[in-house]
């Protein structure tokens, strides 16, 4: 949420003068291998020494002696680490707040890749064995290794098919020539092509129909250039630690499996988390929240969870209540009411804590000394919604004890179902420090001041920041203004965040941990919730993330706008997060900033109903956008949410797969059909798993969609009408009147469904429906995962495979979960007319023709063991 008019302020002090620095540093002398590479437990190690020549100290202090470690970690994962021999540079910590590296004892026996290197100048290639394709190639490009500047380039084909590097609001395929993606966590209202909240230096590339992945494990600010024929990394600290993912089958989904093997698998949500969510910033009082909850009910639109933004707080302080508009007892009553109706409630918590001296959480943290420090040892003070604030230093050994207490007391007080952690880039409204000893709860917000006054304050902050020095004791680096200025949309690094010279525990400058701040909060907050209720799957939604955060939290794509381009681009952003291992992700439906129009909100409710994480959210000054406010929007919401709720068992099964394997819940067509060039740029249609294809309207006034269909049969979700596609290249125009989102089911799939109700619980209380969508050979296959829907530990689960072949439906697999509802209905689409009768365990099953499908109703097939149903 929030950062409203901040965007305008940024434009005011930036004047858009960002250096791009596309070029490679061709004058750099490079390095040579010194001595013989020697074997290590898991690969090779060799020293590098700087060649003599000009072009040293380009942007920092050149480091002469390096060590390269090459680890053949698994058959599909290669690790190449280039580090300073003296180990002074700060890598991503090998902890939960960074990335825990796998502990390996021996190299992989067989690999799908080769690693080749040249001695002088040192360069390396990663080769995909299956077709001898060189997928990463630093030869012919300089290696630069300075304390505050690392540069490495790989050759790639012109107009390469690269997806990833984020977080950024941009089309999915990142084929811009001579363009830059900056990775540096930043609170910014989703400007296109600029660095925003999270840091994910990871990309997938598809070449000749085969995919591989490249991850630079580095948490420093960086620019990544997708120029013609190359990708260039320019990084302002740390080391170059690359991981390459080369699955044998070359499938994009296998690349994601390999990537999440390293960074951690996405967390498993509880079933209720897949229900519909509603929030707004700007609920005026508790009655306003109740009005929204009741409005959904009156309009028969499903609502699972209500969210309360910072509105409920007293002066926007965490863990407090506005005594007039959101008194404590009214919030407790709301939570009770939600639970009584089998609904849920979530509130926001920001990391920044008011320095107001009568504020107990501050007092407690101050006593425990757990806040980020200035480089002179005093408490670092920034400004966030509650005025002047301090920031927990998650790396402090007592931070967990501090945070556990605050979080657990808060959860208990309101009996909350989850937490929403925002502003954790960390966002702060000053340029670095706001000064020392500040305790005002209501200082002016700079963007509300006249320009001149704001500029004056900004200049004072700049002077105060500079007065603290550009470095920290014992460190000679220029942390405030490194010579290589990454292209951060925010300008100077400390702009609207903690000073780069502020200190974390162990005297680590914020400069080195900035991109990990939100990630560490995600990890710690999950631990707190697990201490609160050890066997409940924690629900946390976070704005800032890093590689691996998906094992702890979900993510929403931040402060977008009520505009058609943001509606459309939300699909690409969700694709990115599926690829970054954060499968529980979604965008603010109907848009956050600006006023949503009725047609926009209608289309967005249709699309958002299918997001992995689905929530309508709005900002303070914007007009209301509850879906029940417009009749067409309400109708579109009812229809699209009926699709979502019918698909809940399918979604839940996909989330389990994502949690176990790492594949996305939403998938771009190109990830499922990497050999079809026509899909390379399609970031508008999306697959839910492999079997459901949605083709939303993303353009204003459009009433049809030109849709691609992969080869095969696709059945219209609503009418069962079959569309046979002979080539993915052809486009089909689908009718999409205002309240309709086209959805198709892949012939060859068996989907477990439910009868949609207003609540997840009620939806699950009815029997299962099996939808058998036959392919051209009259066959189909599908999967259903069942557990108790919310516990961390699952002693009994069912993992059932359904196959349909030669007129026989077979259910096999594991039937550990005994309490599941039975199968009540089987529906076959695409069946030849020759099916006349059916039988199950010798009993005849009644078949009827309904809307082009063959339907067996009122069945009573328990999901406690194998069964077959014969159709003749
Ligand atoms: C990056 O590419 C996009 C799309 O081509 C373009 O709109 C944008 O201006 C480019 N940005 C820069 C900084 O060149
Ligand atoms: C809540 O806010 C609304 C809108 O400002 C106002 O009309 C209403 O009177 C308020 N209700 C209470 C109980 O304060
Ligand atoms: C601290 O908070 C209280 C209660 O909100 C407020 O009255 C007081 O002015 C605040 N103190 C400062 C220094 O802002
Ligand atoms: C960054 O800081 C420097 C040094 O104080 C200042 O001269 C420059 O204007 C700032 N740049 C931006 C984009 O604010
Ligand atoms: C948005 O709606 C609000 C209230 O409904 C109104 O005050 C505001 O002027 C509108 N903004 C725009 C940009 O139309
Ligand atoms: C959509 O229709 C409205 C009303 O006719 C028109 O003002 C607007 O420009 C149209 N938008 C587009 C993108 O064509
Ligand atoms: C900061 C930013 O990207 N603002 C854009 C938000 O979306 C609106 C509508 O598309 C644009 O006009 C803004 O420029």
TrEMBL record:
List the GO biological process terms.
carbohydrate metabolic process
Q: Which residues form the signal peptide?
A: 1-19
A Pfam family matched in the record: Glyco_hydro_31_3rd
Residues in Glycoside hydrolase family 31 N-terminal domain copies: 110-222
GO MF terms listed in the record are: carbohydrate binding; hydrolase activity, hydrolyzing O-glycosyl compounds
Q: Which domain of life is it from?
A: Eukaryota
Which InterPro entries does the record match to this protein? Answer: Gal_mutarotase_sf_dom, GH, Glyco_hydro_31_AS, Glyco_hydro_31_C, Glyco_hydro_31_N_dom, Glyco_hydro_31_TIM, Glyco_hydro_b
Provide the Glycosyl hydrolase family 31 C-terminal domain boundaries: 662-751
Question: Which UniProt keywords are present, listed alphabetically?
Answer: Glycoprotein, Glycosidase, Hydrolase, Signal
Q: Which residues form the Glycoside hydrolase family 31 TIM barrel domain?
A: 266-654
What's the family?
Belongs to the glycosyl hydrolase 31 family.
Task: Return the protein name.
Answer: Maltase
